[in-house]
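Changelog note: in this version the structure field was regenerated for every chain. One regenerated record is shown below for reference.
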Amino acid sequence: MQPKNNAVLFDLDGTLINSGLSFLKIVNELKENESQAPVNFEIVREFSSRGASLVLRNAFPDASDEKIDALKSKFLERYTQIMTTDIHLYNGVGELLNYLNENSISWGIVTNKSAKYTLPIIETLNWHKETSVIICPEDVHQTKPDPEGILKALNSLNASIETSFYVGDHERDIQTAKNANVKSIACTYGYFQSDPLKWGADYIIDSPNEIKNIL
């Protein structure tokens, strides 16, 4: 029987990509269109992994549900226009992925971000040439914190549960790792809403490059 691999699986937004900066850009375009003052990044950051509706609700706290729905349509239309030209990798992500590739360490992505947004970004970055494992909500019956996505990714990579990792910036990600019985790595950057030090992760990192020391 072929021996199992070690693998590192990642959340996408807030872990590898700072898509919140794109969201901030769009929100402030919408604020300008509404003749309102721009917001700062923190207003957008906290909800950037939980969907456009929550981002907009936080940025437009006085808006009606109908107004939020209208803004959401404009938000998603604009995001589709800029999502492959306004990509912001966190510092060290490129170096980390090069390290994994050079050392033949399998890696992949398990995200709750829809494939129609995820896959064009992955292809723009040429990551689809480095990993075949990109798990989106459309690929599973149950999304995070259910472990289905992680387990499906590990199976595809022929990777061991015992020696593999899942990296994320939200408490939900760490719970997903625990549910899958893989080692968890919590990011202190990204879109967390509570203290990452209190999530019970196996490891805590302040920068993607620190994962090399864990491996």
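Spot check on this record: The CA atoms of residues 147 and 180 lie 5 Å apart. The beta strands are 7-10, 106-110, 134-135, 165-168, 183-187, 203-205.
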